[in-house]
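REQUEST FORM: STRUCTURE PREDICTION
Request ID: SP-0412
Submitted by: Lab K.M.
Chain count: 1
Length (residues): 96
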Amino acid sequence: MSFSQKIKDNKGILIALGGLAVAGAAFFLAKKHGCCGKKQQTSCCKGKCPVQSIYERVGGKVNIDAAVVSFYDKVLKDDRVKRFFKNTDMKHQVKQ
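STATUS: Completed
RESULT:
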């Protein structure tokens, strides 16, 4: 199941927010090797292992964008917080 599908299937706004925070932090986290998942090269890599960031592993821009749209859909349906976005240009907010 893809990251964006997990966000879409989730009914809890806190989980969606947590997923969004993890995705946003992906650029700042250490890169890992795609073949073994370890931070350091090991004997399985033999110096040829492609390096993938967390951003790449969650599906890149497409899945991050889907998670953001899904997050704001949930926010706007939540009576506890939707009032804070009453005067917000949501197209601009999603781009941010």
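NOTES: The mean pLDDT is 74.
Reviewed by: T.R.
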